[in-house]
Amino acid sequence: MMQGPIRRVPKHRVDSREDALLSTAWIEGAEPTPPALDGAWVTQAPKGLQRGGDAPVLVLLGSGPDAVRAELLAHAMSGARTYVLVGPDWGKGRVDGELLRAERVLVRRIPEVPASGVMVASDAWVWMGGGLALRLDSVQREALRQTFLRLFWHEATEEAWSGSREFSWRRASERPFDVPEVPGSASVRWEPSDARLEADSRALALHVINGRPPAKAAPRLWFPAGADHHDQLGQLADAGVEVVWSDRGLPDIQVSSGGGEVLLPGTRGRLRLRLTAPQAQELAQLLRAPSAWRFSTRVRLGDANHRQARFWLSGEQASRGLEDEQHIELPPVQASSLRTVLETTPSTLPPAQPLALAVCYQWTVLPPRVPTGAEEDALVRSWRTVDEHWATRLAKVREALTAAEGERGRLGGAFSRLVSAMLGFQRTESGLLAQAEVLAAQRPSEAGPADAPALLSHLGELEEGARKLQLDLEEAERKAREDEERDRQRDAWQARVDTAQRELPNRREAVEEAEGRRNHIAEQLRELEEGLRAASKEARRDLTANQRRLSDELTRVNREIGRLRGEVAAMEQTAAEPFEFRPAPSAPRRSQTGGRFVPQAASARPQTSVPTEALPEVGALRRHKGERFLVIETWSELEAGEREATRLSAALVGPEDA
Amino acid sequence: MRCVLTTEIPVSRVAVFAEMAWMQRRPELGLLCRAGREQDNRITAAVVQSVLPGLGDAGANNVIAWCRTLGLCDAHGGLTALGADVAESNEAPVPEQGVYGLWLAQHPVMGRRVLAVERLASKRDPRFESIGPLAFEPDRGRVFRSMLDAKERFVVRDLPSNHGQLGALAGDTRATCRLRWTLDFGQSRDQWQLDGMIEAPQQGSNAMRSMEHEPESDGLDLWRLAETWATGPLSAFGRWQAGERRLAVEFDDLSDGEVANFRKSLPLRRVEIPGRGTFEDVTLEDVPIGPTSGQEAQRWAMARFDRDLSDKPGYRSRSALRERFAELTEDTPLESFAPSLPSHSDLLARAAKNPERFWTIAAPVDLSPFPPASEELDALRIGSPAPAPVVEPAGVVRVPYRGGWSMRRLVDRLMAGVAPRRLLLCDRYVRGDDNLQSLGLLIDSVRAIAPSVGVEVWTGDEEADFKKVQALTGTSPRSYREVFGRSWPHDRYLIVLPTQGPGFGWHMSNSPIHARADVQDAGPDTALRWKDLAATRVTADELQPALRQWLVGSAR
C-alpha cells in the first residue's frame, strides 16, 4: 500500500529484441585500402603529356585534381597555344598568377565542364574521379576533341586570355563555324544529364553512383549505401548479386570482358566514355576490390559480428550502430480509480527502433483527480451555515452577558439601594456564562444530523436566560430612578411654597404704595385741567405741557400696579399649591445598534435547518457538473474515503494537482 | 569625282535707250512655230496656211515677214532659237522701245547677260553730259529671264545709237552676283547657277532681293578636262591614269577613310577651264585613287584587311579570312596588282602583339572541326587560281579560289555517284540576282543528274524574295526563323536524300551560289569564278536537329 500524498506514479517495462530480423540493411565494416592502379590506361599518376610541334593544347578544367592544373601550367608556360574550358565561377576569385603570365592561354567559361582532361596532338587524358586518370586512344581522343570543340564554340558564355594582370572577361564572341553534333556512336560524347549506363548482359561489375539500381545487374554491383531503393537492392541480393559500396569518388562504370563504359557525373550533361577492352580490364581491378559496405537481407540483430557494425536502413537519414537498450517514454496513462493506480498500463506499446537490442518502456499513471473548476458541495455549505449561525448566536449571548456584567457594576455604583439586588443578578449571570462556554466548545456539524438539534435547543435556552437577566436589570434601574425623581420634585415644591409665603407681604405693600401714587397724580391732573380752562394763552401753554407730563406718569403707574397685583396673585397660588409627583418622561428610543445598554438577546428562538447527511470523515466534498467528488489528499485516507464516498454517492479522487 | 567652282561677277547698272521685247503669251505664234518645227524647222506659206486655213499667199507672207521681224525665223523662214522657244513656251516677244534700267553682268560661262530690267519714265533729263560709253553690250536676240521674277522674260532687240556709239547713263548698284559651277565627273554632268542680291525697284528704292536663277549646264567634256588637269594641278598629288580614270597616289599619304573608300579630296589652288576662265581655291572631291605599284597595293590591301578585322572583331575561320580579303581587294583598284593574303602563320606573327586579333585568327584554325588543308593556310594571291589540294581526304570536296570549276563539276562531286531524290540547300543568304543566278545553275546541274529531284531552300527571310526562289526551285522556301527559331546555323548545308541509301549532308564553309559567272547565259558547264569552298560530308547524326528531321521526314 502506498503512503504519503496522492501523486502520479512512474512505471516501466523492458523487452529483449536479440532475435529481431532486419528485412534489408546496408552493413558497414572497416574501410579497406583501395588497390593502387598504375596501368597503361588507368593510373593515379599520369605521366606528363608531350606536346607535338606547334599543336595547340586543349584543357577541360573541371573540379578535378591538381594534376590537371599542373598539366595546364606546364603547357601554358611552354608557350603552347592553350585553350581552356572552365566553369562559370572560375576566375571570379583569386586567379593563378602563373597562368596569367603565360603567353598564349585562351579561357572560355561554359555552364558546366563535364570532366577534367588534357589533349595534345597525340595524347589525351581524362580524370574520371577518385584521383584516377584515363588515357584515351586515338579514336577516343578525336571524339573528345569533337566534344571539346562543340562545348568551346557552342556553349561558351564568356572568354578571356592571358597576358595581362588579370583576366578581362567579356561575352564570348560568335562562333566562326558550326561544329557538327557528336554522333551517338562516338566513343566520347556529352549526353543529357539523365543519361544512364547502357545495359550489358556481359557486364562483370557495375558501379552506379546515383539514380535507381539497375533491374538486372552484373555479378557485382557498386551502389551508394543509403536509405533508398532497398526493395530493388534486396531483390538483386536475393538473386545472387553482390551489392557493395565504398565511396571512392568514381563515376558510373561498367566493365565487361570486351569493354565497358564510364559515365561522368554532371548536372547539365554527362560525359560518356566507351572503354576499350584493355581500359576495362584495368578498371575491373578496382571494382573487384573489397568494399566498406555490403547490402544484406534478413539480418538478425543479436549476431555477434553485428555488435560493432553500422547499419543503414531503408528510409533513414544516416547509418548508425546497434543500441543496447532503447528507452521509450510513453504518454501518461489515466487510472480508472485510486485503488487501481498500481496496476494501470498503457493500452498499446509502440514498436522499438529496428536497431535496438532491448527496449524499455516508461510511462506515468495518473490517479483520478477532481476536475478543475469543481465547487464545494451543497452539503458542506449547509453545515457551514449551521455552524456559522451557531457561532453567531453564541457570540451574541456571550456579548450580552458580558455587557450585563458591566451594567450591573454601574447600577451598583449609582444606586446604593440596589446593592443587594445586584448580588442576585451576579449569580444568575455567572451561571449563564458557564453554559455558554460549554456550548462554545461544540459545533453542530461535528455533532451531525442526530445531535445537532439538541445543541441548538440548548443554545435557545441560554439565549432566553440572558434575555431575562437583561430585563430584570432594566426594571431595577427604572424603579431606582423613579424614587430619586420623586424626592427631587418634593424638595422643589417645598422651596417654592416657602419663597411665596415669605415674599407675599412685601408685594402687597408695594401695591398699596403704587395705588397712593396713582391717586395723587390723578388729583393733580384734575386740578390742572380746571386751571387750564381759566388760564391765559401764555399760561395755557405751560399748563398744557404739564398736563401731558402728568398724564404719561399716570399711565406708567397704572402699569406698575397691574404687574404688582399679578405677582401677588401668583405668590398666593404657589403658597396654596399641594405636592404632586410627575414621572419623568421616558428617554427617547435609541437606534437599534446602540440603544440599549445591554445587548438585545434574541427575542425569539431562530429556526435553523439541519442537513440530513453528515459531512465526510475524510477529504473534501466537491461537486462538478452535477457529480459529487470526495477529494482525499493522502493514500492513508483511501479506506475511509472509499467508505464515505459510497455513503455520499461520490467519486473518490485525488487532489487537482496530483 | 566632283568639284564646285565659284567666282564673283561684278554687276553694273545703266539707263539706256533700247528696243526691248517682253515675252508674252501668244498661243497662235506658238502654234505657228510648232507647225514650222514639224516642217523642217521652217515657217513657210504652207505652214502658215495650215495653221490659218483660208489665208491667202499674200497674207501668209505677211505673217512670215512679221515672224521674221519678231526674230522667230530668218529671212528664209528658218526657225530661230527664239522661234523654237516660242514653240515650246507659247510665249512670243512683244517689242517696245523706251528708256530702261538694266543690270548687266558678263562671264565666259554665262555670256553678257541682262540680269533684270526696269522700265524708266521718259522725261527731260538735264544730265546729258553724264552719258558715257556702255561697258559692254548685252547679247541681242537672246531671251533673258529676270533674276527678280522668274516668270518675266525679255529680249534686247536693239540698242539704238548715234553713229554706232552706244551711250548709257551709269547708275549706282549694290547688287552682288556669284557663279557656282558644279562639275560632276562621275556623272559627266556640269551645272552652273547664279546667286546673289539685286535691287528690287518695285518694292522700294533701297529694297534688295535674292536672285532667282534656274541651274544651267555648259556641256563640258569633264574627263577631257581631267586630263588637262593631270599635268597641272593634279600632278602634285599623284599620277593621273586616264585609262582607269583614277589618280595613282602614295599609300603613306592616305587617311583611313581614303584607304577604305579609294576616294580622296584634293585642294587645288587654281584651275583653268579652257575657254571658261580660271577659278581659285577649288576642292576636287572624291577623286578616284589607286596604288602606284604592287608593293603599295599590298600595303593598301593589308591596311584595309586590318581595318576590317578591327571594325568587326570576332573569330574568323581561315576560309572566312580568305573570302574577306578577296572581297576587300577584288573589284577595287588593288585587284590589278594581285595583292596577297599572308599565310596563316604570318598572320599570327603579325598579330603577336594583339592578343584579341591573335586568338580570333588562331582559334578557328586550331579548333576547327574540319582542319583546313595546308594549301588553304598558305598565302592567297588575288586574281590567281589557288592551288588544288594535293591530298584530299575522303568525304571532303574543296573548290579552290578561282579554281575554274563549273557548277556541274561541283554537283557531281557532291552527289558522289548517287541520284538525289530530294535536295535541301540551307543558306542564310539566298538573295540578290547574282546569288539567284548561281542557284539556278546549281538546280540545273542537279537536274541534269536527276531531272525529277525536288529542291528545297531554307534561308533567312530578311531581304529575301521567296517568290523568285520558288520560281527556281518549284517549292516554297522556308525561313530560318521558322525552322531554326533562334539557333541559326552559321555554315551552309546541302542535304541530299538519294533515291536509294541513307541520306547525308554536306557541311560547307561557303555557299555554292556565291560562285559567279563572268559570261552571259552561263550554264552548268560554264567555268565559274569561285571563292574558297570546302564541303565535308556528314552523317545524319552529325547534323543539327532541324536538318536531321528534314532528312528523316523526307525519307518516309
Overall body shape of chain A: elongated
Uncertain spans of chain B, ≥5 residues at pLDDT below 50? none
The overall pLDDT average of chain B reads: 92
Provide the helix percentage of chain B: 25-40%
Gist?
The complex is a heterodimer of chains A (658) and B (556). Chain A has 658 residues and is of the alpha+beta class. Chain A is built from 10 helices and 28 strands.
Model description:
- The complex is a heterodimer of chains A (658) and B (556).
- Chain A has 658 residues and is of the alpha+beta class.
- Helix content of chain A is 39%, strand content 20%.
- Among the domains of chain A are: 9-20 and 301-366, no CATH class; 42-191, Endonuclease Chain A (Endonuclease, Chain A); 396-576, no CATH class; 616-653, no CATH class.
- Chain A has an eleven-stranded mixed β-sheet with strand order 12-18-17-16-13-14-15-19-2-20-21, sandwiched between helices. Chain A has a nine-stranded mixed β-sheet with strand order 3-9-8-7-4-5-6-10-11, with helices on both faces. In chain A, strands 1, 22, 23 and 24 form a four-stranded mixed β-sheet that branches.
- Chain B has 556 residues and is an alpha+beta fold.
- Chain B is 29% helix and 29% strand.
- Chain B contains 16 helices and 24 strands.
- Chain B is elongated and about 110 Å long.
Topology:
The complex is a heterodimer of chains A (658) and B (556).
Chain A: E1 9-16, E2 21-28, E3 42-43, E4 57-61, H1 66-77, E5 82-86, H2 97-101, E6 105-109, E7 116-119, E8 124-129, E9 132-135, H3 138-155, E10 158-161, E11 170-171, E12 188-192, E13 203-207, E14 220-222, H4 230-238, E15 242-245, E16 252-256, E17 259-263, E18 269-275, H5 277-288, E19 293-300, E20 310-312, E21 320-321, E22 326-329, E23 333-334, E24 358-366, E25 375-376, H6 378-414, H7 419-440, H8 444-534, H9 537-576, E26 620-624, E27 627-631, H10 638-648, E28 651-653
Parallel strand pairs in A: 4-5, 5-6, 13-14, 14-15, 22-24, 23-24, 27-28
Antiparallel strand pairs in A: 1-24, 2-19, 2-20, 3-9, 4-7, 6-10, 7-8, 8-9, 10-11, 12-18, 13-16, 15-19, 16-17, 17-18, 20-21, 25-26, 26-27
Helix pairs in contact in A: 6-7, 6-8, 7-8, 8-9
Chain B: E1 2-8, E2 12-25, H1 27-38, H2 45-51, H3 57-70, H4 81-89, E3 91-107, E4 111-120, E5 132-133, E6 143-145, E7 153-158, E8 167-171, E9 176-184, E10 189-199, E11 208-210, H5 222-230, E12 239-241, E13 246-249, H6 256-261, E14 263-273, E15 277-291, H7 294-311, H8 318-329, E16 340-341, H9 344-350, H10 355-366, H11 374-377, E17 380-381, E18 396-399, H12 407-415, E19 420-426, H13 433-449, E20 454-459, H14 466-473, E21 478-479, H15 480-484, E22 492-498, E23 504-508, E24 533-538, H16 545-555
Parallel strand pairs in B: 13-15, 19-20, 20-21
Antiparallel strand pairs in B: 1-9, 1-15, 2-3, 2-7, 2-8, 3-4, 5-8, 6-7, 9-10, 10-11, 12-13, 14-15, 16-17, 18-24, 19-22, 22-23, 23-24
Helix pairs in contact in B: 1-2, 1-4, 2-3, 7-8, 9-10, 12-13, 13-14
